[in-house]
Amino acid sequence: MDIEFRSYCMKCKIWVGSEKTHKCSTENLVVADKEMVGIVDRLYMMGITPMVAVWSTTELGEASDSKYLITIKIDIGQKISEAVLGELPAGWQYHWHTVTPDRSELHMIAYVEHWYNLGFGESAETRVYELIKQFEDYLDTRDCEAVKALLLLLEV
Ligand SMILES: [Zn+2]
User: What distance in angstroms lies between residue 66's CA and the mean position of ligand 1's atoms?
Assistant: First the structure.
C-alpha cells in the first residue's frame, strides 16, 4: 500500500517538499498525512514535537465482511509522563514498548480499532476523519501552558 508521506514544518506551518531545501531544524519537521496536521499543530503548541503522524485502514478477511483495521499513530519522539496530557480519549493509548522480546522503546500515542462497515454510508476513511476530529477536540480541552509546564516538571 502506498501512503503519501510528506514533511510538514510545524514551526512555519507549511509542507516542505524536501528536508534539504527547508532551513528549519529537523526537529520542527514531521512526516505526516495531511489529515493529521490539526493534531500535529496542537501538540506542537504544547511543546510536544511529533516525528511521525499517520493513519491507515486495512481491509481484513473476506471482502464481503467489510471489516477494517483502523490505526492512527503519532510518534512523539520521546517518552513523556502520562500525567502531562491526562487521560486520553477512549481507545487511545500510549505505547512505550514494542511486544518484541527486545522491548525496544517506542514513543507512540496510537488508536487501533476493528471497524465494521454496517452500510450506513460511512466509509473507513470517514471513520478515521471522525476519530481525528475527536482527538483534536480532546487536545483543545488541554491547557497548552499547563502542558508545557508539566512537560518540564515531569521530564522522564
Ligand atoms: Zn520551517
Answer: 41
